[in-house]
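Minutes, project huddle
Topic: does the predicted pose make sense with flavin-adenine dinucleotide bound?
PN asked that the exact inputs be recorded in the minutes so nobody has to dig through chat later. Recorded below.
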Amino acid sequence: MSQKYDCLVIGAGFAGAVTARELAERGGKNVLVLERRSHVGGNAYDRLDDAGVLIHQYGPHIFHTNSQRAYDYLSRFTAWRDYQHRVVANVHGTMMPVPFNLTSLELAYGPEKAARLEKKLVETYGAEKKVTILELRRSDDPEIKALADYVYENVFVHYTMKQWGQTPEEIDPNTTARVPVFLSRDDRYFQDTWQGIPAEGYTPVFDHMLDHPNITVELGVDASDRLSLDVSGLSLDGEPFTGAVVYTGAVDELFGCCFGRLPYRTLDFKFETHPVEWFQPRGTVNYTVSEDYTRITEFKYFSGQDLPDRTTIVKEYSRAYTGAAEETPYYAIINEANNALYAKYRALADALPDFHLLGRLAEYKYYNMDAIVVRALELADRLLG
Ligand code: FAD
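Predicted holo structure (tokens), as shared on screen:
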């Protein structure tokens, strides 16, 4: 093969970085990675801010998984700082653990009524169980039904309206039905086997992963400026390219949004540094009945940095994505119409030779980091036979 690279990977987030590493290391391929931003890491990118706090530029990221493969793989590139994520909802000034649990029950109803309800709930559904509000609503007991309404109103509905820009009528009943009440005093947000934050932060994980003699990374390069697509073949910098292409960017952009834009929610982040040791009692506080932001996250909980006189927080504001260059599409809005639109783009991509869509943007799906790592490893398995 006369071309310089065997494989082309577009995007240096988890999808692109893991695939590039595997193709280079396991497959011995020469891999070119093109990344539009000025840094690697995709949305998991972190950096020190002016106050010296390690912030997550594109929103708070906590690694959690039950996948041995994802955990073992990333552990090749990082040690871990043990961190168990805890989230509370600010309900009219009271900080209630979410998912709503037995501690939240006590805070909502007071000790006496909570103890009575707890007994009923545990007798009916079992201790340490996650019960959905749909199941609670099916109960004949008016107190249990009322609990479902309490959780819906104080923890779920306003938060979801802010997050997705919906009215209560527009919220998918299936989503509402899945809202859990956790009959436990375990106030961790995730119960996964492995949870933590890379000991040096996320960006060094990507630096290590992409540091391989067979990998070339070019930053600040939009693939659309270098790659042309044609069913008869692809070209890179005007020369025919016959190797595998792994594309992790937005699939509609790849085809000039010819069928219209795929809808997304975007986020505006407002970072603030405060001259106090701690701003709030937990890593994340959700504002479920007040404020126009959805949540506040305080980064020192993640990094464990010892900075007694300052702390940095971020407030998240959710709104519709317009496609403007300075915006990031964060959350795909999954519904029938959007899935059908995605299928049209997918068909165009599938017609291209040795062209593979991977990741949250290319697949128009929400994936946690561990899921993307596993998917990238599986794609590499297939490509390398
Ligand atoms: P991305 O990280 O988005 O990477 C794609 C990369 O491709 C980007 O760097 C982009 O610049 C680049 N790119 C796109 N188009 C082009 C182009 N044309 N040319 C060149 N480069 C291009 N997951 C968890 O497990 N735990 C969490 O706590 C968590 N929190 C999250 C919080 C928020 C606010 C969000 C939005 C997501 C969160 N996630 C979390 C999910 C996590 O961000 C994703 O799993 C992960 O980013 C997926 O990696 P990716 O490579 O598919 O996409």
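Observations noted during the meeting:
- The pocket of flavin-adenine dinucleotide is lined by residues 10-16, 34-37, 42-44, 59-63, 222-224, 248-249, 267, 330, 359-361, 367-370, 372 (CB under 6 Å).
- The mean pLDDT is 96.
No decisions taken; revisit at the next huddle.
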